[in-house]
């Protein structure tokens, strides 16, 4: 019996040691948690209060107009990435969205295109790289910009360069618009983040896992992997990703941003704002 107990103890210790080892998807967890804490502090001190005031003070139609305006700008880069991914029909649809919303939609303040049946897409260069088989690499929590991966971080400078708002003159108008853009994104997520704060035992893990699952589904358009079959997710990852995949396929951006906006929104979505 003593030998048996010893064997069980050794086995249990081995299991616990294995569980305590580094997560292969998150080998930089110590750094990432530090950045998460920093982002959380910035959010709680500055961004969340500003977003709460923004949501409570401004009329809903004004908030909708702001969101539509910056969403129309993002459609330009989405269209380009659609073409780069070989999605000609989607790219043309996004071009039509920009044309309709920029003219009949009063520079994008009104989302005429969605009412006309043209679905909104959210594509960036990190997704394009992933679509053609570039592996995501480890998870990264970027200061202020939020969650990302090594692949998406490498792609981020081009996403920033391609944002039309980055060329807006005069500079003071550009800066004011960038601040409004961030606050508007945070305001949209206030209800979702309140639910997350109540439900999650470890908010860092919740944000990380939600982001990675939803990002994988966005990159692969809900499929098992990119063209060429590289970076195929494991069966267990597929099962875990199903809830996030469903949101991504329906165009619901809440899936990867269920944590505080500055912590959980993909870095590519903050590129022009910070």
The secondary-structure element order is: HHHHHHEEHHHHHHH
Per DSSP E runs of 2 or more residues, the count of β-strands stands at: 2
The end-to-end distance, rounded to whole angstroms, is: 63 Å
Gyration radius, rounded: 21 Å
Structural class of the helix and strand makeup? Answer: mainly alpha
Uncertain ranges = 5-20, 228-264
**In DSSP terms, counting alpha (H) and pi (I) runs of 4 or more, how many helices?**
13
Placed side by side, the strands forming the largest sheet appear as 1-2
Mean pLDDT: 82
* Helix percentage: 55-70%
Large-scale geometry: globular
Q: Beta fraction of the residues?
A: under 5%
The biggest beta sheet is recorded as: 2 strands, antiparallel
Q: How does this model look, in words?
A:
The structure is a single chain. The chain is mainly alpha-helical and 274 residues long. It is built from 13 helices and 2 strands; from the N terminus they run ααααααββααααααα. It has helices at residues 2-20, 29-57, 60-84, 88-103, 112-115, 125-131, 150-161, 171-188, 190-199, 203-219, 235-249, 261-264, 267-270, and strands spanning 139-142, 146-149. It has a two-stranded antiparallel sheet with strand order 1-2. A hairpin with a 3-residue loop joins strand 1 and strand 2 (146-149). The protein is globular and about 50 Å long.
């Amino acid at each position: 019996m003593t030998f048996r107990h010893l064997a069980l103890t050794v086995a249990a210790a081995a299991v616990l040691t294995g569980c305590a080892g580094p997560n292969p998807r998150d080998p930089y967890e110590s750094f990432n948690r530090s950045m998460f804490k920093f982002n959380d502090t910035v959010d709680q001190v500055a961004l969340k209060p500003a977003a709460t005031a923004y949501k409570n003070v401004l009329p809903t139609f004004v908030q909708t107009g702001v969101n539509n305006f910056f969403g129309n700008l993002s459609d330009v880069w989405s269209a380009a990435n659609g073409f780069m991914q070989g999605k000609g029909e989607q790219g043309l649809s996004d071009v039509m969205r920009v044309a309709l919303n920029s003219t009949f939609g009063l520079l994008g303040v009104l989302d005429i295109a969605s009412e006309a049946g043209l679905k909104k897409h959210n594509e960036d260069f990190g997704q394009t790289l992933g679509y053609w088989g570039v592996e995501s690499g480890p998870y990264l929590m970027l200061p202020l910009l939020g969650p990302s991966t090594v692949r998406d971080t490498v792609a981020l400078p081009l996403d920033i360069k391609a944002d039309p708002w980055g060329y807006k003159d005069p500079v003071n108008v550009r800066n004011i618009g960038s601040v409004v853009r961030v606050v508007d994104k945070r305001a949209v997520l206030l209800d979702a983040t309140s639910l997350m704060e109540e439900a999650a035992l470890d908010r860092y893990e919740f944000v990380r896992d939600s982001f990675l699952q939803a990002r994988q589904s966005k990159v692969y358009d809900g499929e098992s992997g990119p063209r060429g079959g590289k970076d195929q997710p494991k069966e267990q990852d597929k099962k875990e990703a199903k809830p996030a995949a469903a949101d991504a396929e329906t165009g619901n951006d809440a899936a990867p941003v269920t944590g505080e906006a500055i912590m959980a929104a993909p870095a590519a979505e903050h590129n022009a704002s910070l």
